[in-house]
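Support request, please re-run this one:
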Amino acid sequence: MAAAERPALKLFGRVVAGLAAVAMALAAVCLLVSLALIGWAVVMRYVFNDAPIWVDEVVGFALVAVVMMAAASSLRSGEHINVDLLVGFLSSKARRWAQAWAALATLLVAVLLVVNGSETAALAHELGLLTEGSLEWPTWALMLLMPIGGTLLGLAAIEALWRAIVGALPTNAPSQIGKAPE
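Re-run finished. Output below.
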């Protein structure tokens, strides 16, 4: 049986859920803008024979934003790639250990994204680097997506680890309804 959530975990979970929802909304906006730009570019290319050359770059940058902004929400909803087949055979206690290890590994990746992304963005800013292509955007601004997404992912991983340690249900618990208690 899962332990009840303590007030601190409940509050932390609400904060992480709110941040993840805002980030997911931004990711959705980026997808919609990408869809609109691609549609517009296709019409311009095949109807007016005047293809905009910058659309591919904007869509590429938007897709990076989608991945980085959606990672925390994906983790919270249990949509990250994992090996459910093996974990499903584990006892309740072993499953909690597996969830804790998975959260720790995710937290490590998040820390790497934050540290390396911040250092890379700072170096790109210092050097004044611009993207190649028709737009020439400052690369440091695009590279900030890594530490921002890493921070959000790290917060979701801390929540998952906390839940595993105290025995609270994971945030994707509705997918576990109907499983036999152990």
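Residues 7-172 form one domain. Helices lie at 7-46, 55-76, 84-87, 92-127, 139-143, 145-166.
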